[in-house]
Design brief:
This protein is an alpha+beta fold. The protein contains 13 helices and 5 strands. A 5-stranded mixed beta sheet has the order 3-4-2-1-5, with helices on both faces.
Length: about 260
């Protein structure tokens, strides 16, 4: 929409004269063409390493600019990054940061190669997708087969609800990884699942049941639907070991647990 592009142009005009500014990358709904009239304009402001360090010290790694908006209630939602940040995100960024660059476009840059760098961020190698499938199936099985029943057995409401949320998240992310679809964040899980070509039978209703009625039976029904959906490449006998590796040994391996990947 014109007012979003005018706001973007005003932001670029304001920052391009700054010596530490390297480029502006448009992301979010405006970049994807799915914006509403009242949507904000999401951007990454790419800066030098020194400027990024100063932004961190000043708690200015993310901020809002309302002064450049050309429409009522509008603003630019700014996240600060560097070229190194983009390179590392392309190598090992978590799903939300990778997903944030899906459909991204460079609005302005001092560097000719910024477009190529941005385009690499949302790309995940097949081997990484396969590893995610294994990790998330292990998560789903442990939360559905052990932690949720334990919460019921011990009358521990926190454990029941904790296990239910983690079961739904892990099962959903296993399905997303199976379809090679990035996880944008908890806010978008159900919305993204609805875009998949195929889901387990009655999956969304089973998911809702686990969240509203976190009982062992609800968890078992969801997990049974997921298990029947695909021959997952993780033998039952190896599930506990994978779960321990990914969670209890995360401090040792230096690899974030799957839910933070």
């Amino acid at each position: 929409m014109r007012h979003h592009e005018e706001t973007l142009a005003a932001f670029v005009a304001d920052v391009r004269g700054e010596p530490d500014a390297v480029g502006v990358v448009v992301v979010g709904s405006v970049a994807r063409g799915t914006e509403r009239a009242d949507s904000d304009v999401d951007v990454y402001l790419v800066v030098t390493g020194d400027a990024f360090a100063r932004a961190g010290e000043q708690n200015r790694l993310s901020y809002v600019r309302r002064d450049v908006a050309t429409y009522a209630g509008g603003y630019v939602d700014v996240k600060v990054a560097t070229e190194h940040y983009l390179a590392v995100a392309a190598e090992r960024g978590d799903d939300p940061v990778r997903a944030s660059f899906a459909g991204a476009r460079v609005a302005w840059s001092r560097r000719d190669d910024l477009d190529d760098l941005v385009a690499r961020v949302p790309v995940v190698p097949d081997s990484a997708w396969d590893a995610r499938v294994v990790s998330f199936i292990a998560q789903a099985r442990l939360y559905g087969e052990y932690f949720l029943p334990q919460g019921a057995k011990l009358a521990n409401d926190f454990l029941r609800h904790h296990a239910a949320v983690h079961l739904v998240t892990a099962a959903g992310r296993a399905l997303l990884a199976h379809h090679r679809v990035l996880f944008r964040g908890p806010k978008y899980l159900e919305e993204t699942l609805r875009t998949l070509d195929r889901l387990p039978e009655d999956y969304l209703s089973l998911m809702s049941r686990v969240l509203t009625d976190p009982t062992p039976d609800a968890g078992a029904a969801l997990l049974a639907a997921v298990e029947a959906f695909h021959p997952w490449p993780l033998p039952a006998a190896e599930t506990l070991s994978v779960f321990v590796r990914d969670n209890e040994l995360a401090w040792l391996t230096g690899t974030p647990p799957p839910e933070f990947s």
